[in-house]
Amino acid sequence: MLEPLSPHGQHPAPDDDFLDAVLHGLSLRNKSLPSRFLYDARGSDLFEHIAKLPEYYPTRTEIGLLKERAREFGAALPGRAMVVEFGSGSSRKTELLLAALDRPAAYVPIEISAAALYPAARRIAKDFPDVDVYPVLGGFHDLERMRLPLGGSPLVGFFPGSTIGNFSRPEAVDFLLSARRLLGPGAAFLLGVDLQKPLDILLPAYNDADGVTAAFNLNLLARINRDLEGTFDLGAFEHAAIWNERHHRIEMHLRSLTGQCANVAGRTFSFAAGETIHTENSHKYTPEGFARLAGDGGWEVSRVFIDEKRLFSVQLLA
Predict the structure, then answer these.
(1) Which element (helix H / strand E) includes 107?
(2) What burial class does residue 54 get, using C-beta atoms within 10 Å of its C-beta: 0-12 exposed, 13-18 middle, 19+ buried?
(3) What's the pLDDT at 39?
(4) How many CB atoms lie within 10 A of CB 210?
(5) How far, in Å, CA of 99 to CA of 173, rounded?
(6) Would residue 98 count as lying in a domain?
(7) Number of structural domains found in the chain
């Protein structure tokens, strides 16, 4: 069964704040835009391509863990569970988790992109006919007003892909607290968490030789041009991936190649040569550091699964 849900019982419009966020972010002294706006239909397609690139280790390593340790995940998680996935995307990793669980009862994918959410939900409903599927169109900022379907099943949160790394520490703590309130007492939470590693592995993962990540980043300007009457010259910006040692994160920026101006919805913004728009962070953790973060968010790490090369972890919280 596939039955759409939403925070208010109607489909929300999660991108209603796109214009406000862009006008605010470009008005800042250090220009920045929220990373969630990278994932329109085109951006989601490009990220699916990124996930298959040889330089991009997180996806294949996490999938390897989900496959190789499937029996352990099945033993550690409750039977007849309702799986709630945050930022579900294509739900490809979810298929591996559902197959590992003992008779999963329901699946609730939460995703901001309708173009990604509904095709994936229909595929899961077809491939797992005994699992009730309730897609929710919404973002992480909607969690406080969401209500899960009733049914009495034990709840398992799922947050793969190390998306937790896109949040600042305060944002990550707020997300973990919101997820805890949504899932309720006794829930389990399975997260993908990327680990700290040498820069010769990290940097190519965010600046691939084929330029797919650059196209993904620049697509944000194309989206502004299309949806907000923008006049950005995409050829006058370049993608930049930078390691921030202080915050243990990769930062993605769009760097202006020259002094220039661009309009958005009738407003003009100037850029100096070399000035950047900060578009995304990807924090990298040690197991001990993430355990402290989880504790601040109201969770306790009960198991950690790490691949042989120690590139990536899947962590089970209680």
Answers:
(1) strand 106-111
(2) exposed
(3) 87
(4) 12
(5) 30
(6) yes
(7) 2
What whole-number distance in Å separates Cα of residue 250 and Cα of residue 166? 9
The torsion angle over the Cα atoms of residues 199, 204, 205 and 206, rounded to 10 degrees, is: 100
- Strands 267-271 and 301-306 come out as unpaired
Whether 167 contacts 177, CB under 8 Å: no
Single-letter residue type at 271: F
CA–CA distance, 86 with 58 (Å, rounded to integer): 17
Q: Running along the chain, 318 residues long, what does each successive block of 10 average in pLDDT?
A: 49 65 97 93 92 96 96 96 93 95 96 88 96 91 81 93 95 96 95 97 97 98 97 98 97 98 97 98 97 98 97 98
Residue 12 confidence (pLDDT): 40
Quick one: which of 11, 14, 3, 156 has its CA closest to 86? 156
Q: Are residues 263 and 294 in the same domain?
A: no
Q: How far apart, in whole angstroms, are the C-alpha atoms of residue 135 and residue 122?
A: 9
Closest CA to 278 of 248, 253, 247: 253
Round to whole Å and give the CA distance between 259 and 274: 8
Bridge partners of 32, per DSSP, are 278
Find, among 261, 243, 308, 305, the residue nearest to 76 by Cα: 305
* 11 inside domain: no
- The answer to whether 108 and 86 are in contact (CB under 8 A) is no
Alpha-carbon distance of 148 to 7, in angstroms, equals 9
Domain that holds residue 218: 18-32+199-283
Per-residue CA distances from 285 to 155, 175, 238 (Å): 26, 17, 28
Tell me: do 128 and 182 sit in the same domain: yes
Rounded Cα–Cα distance for residues 142 and 61 (Å): 30
- Cα–Cα distance, 256 to 274 (Å, whole number): 5
